[in-house]
Write a structure and sequence with these properties.
This protein has 256 residues and is an alpha/beta fold. The protein contains eleven helices and eleven strands. The mean pLDDT is 97.
Length: 256
């Protein structure tokens, strides 16, 4: 059965679809599956692949969707993600979009099921299997660090924020042998924290993500001087985007 992240069962298309994607990484995946001509709407954050998405209408952001404009596009399918999109907004869109496909990859290997789900629904199974083969090849090349290290992965500043253990990012880093520092006080998936001697004693280094906060080498230099710990700038897209970007993400992770 073609089952999505919340257990909804979907059918294969029987006519040309009209797809709206509210997830940047899913928009990229749709293009890489050869489905760009069917994508009629995207968010302003859906920027890859640039040559492909520039022809697709923008309908707002991942959380502030222009409902009226989306309705005018007459979509048949909506692609959303549990972390990235707001349920009330998705519920509004579901009132006039017949098929809502919910995604929620939490581990790198969840991408295989995602490729196959969209490949089967939109009848591009062969291309989906090609992506699966490329993913498996990149996955097999990962070489973990010799000794497990605890890293604090920062996604925001003012307030400082990190990720929890049940996130896609944490599971990507785990492949490399990097365990993320986990907040002992916050159950949130993206908890805020304050720097302290206790944290510094618990970590081996810091990773500053290039997104959603745009950390730069300037932040790296300042934080290294402040903390006395190794600090590295990492490409947030490569470590947090699932979909077809995950294949390049695995290669990137292996080189870190």
């Amino acid at each position: 059965m073609l089952t999505d992240a919340i257990g909804q069962v979907h059918a294969q298309i029987t006519a040309a679809p009209r797809i709206v994607s509210l997830v940047p990484s899913i928009t990229e995946l749709l293009c890489d599956l050869g489905l760009a001509r069917y994508v009629v709407g995207r968010t302003g954050f859906c920027i890859h692949p640039a040559a492909c998405v520039k022809q697709i209408a923008k309908i707002g952001g991942t959380k502030d969707v222009n409902i009226k404009k989306t309705r005018q596009l007459a979509p048949t399918h909506l692609l959303v993600n549990i972390d990235e999109n707001e349920k009330p907004t998705v519920d509004q869109l579901a009132e006039f979009i017949p098929h809502v496909i919910v995604t929620h990859p939490l581990t790198p290997r969840d991408n295989l099921a995602l490729y196959r789900l969209l490949g089967d629904i939109f009848r591009v199974e062969q291309r989906a299997e090609q992506l699966c083969a490329a993913f498996d090849e990149a996955y097999a090349q990962i070489v973990p660090v010799k000794a497990t290290q605890t890293m604090l992965y920062c996604i925001w500043k003012d307030p400082w924020m990190t990720v929890s253990a049940d996130t896609y990012i944490a599971n990507m880093l785990d492949l490399k042998g990097w365990k993320i520092w986990i907040s002992p006080t916050s159950p949130q998936r993206y908890p805020a924290f304050e720097w302290s001697d206790t944290i510094l004693h618990q970590i081996d280094g810091v990773l500053l993500s290039s997104e959603p906060y745009r950390f730069t080498e300037t932040h790296v230099d300042a934080l290294e001087k402040q903390l006395g710990k190794p600090v590295q700038l990492v490409d947030g897209e490569m470590l947090s985007w699932y979909g077809s970007r995950a294949i390049a993400g695995l290669r990137y992770l292996n080189k870190l």
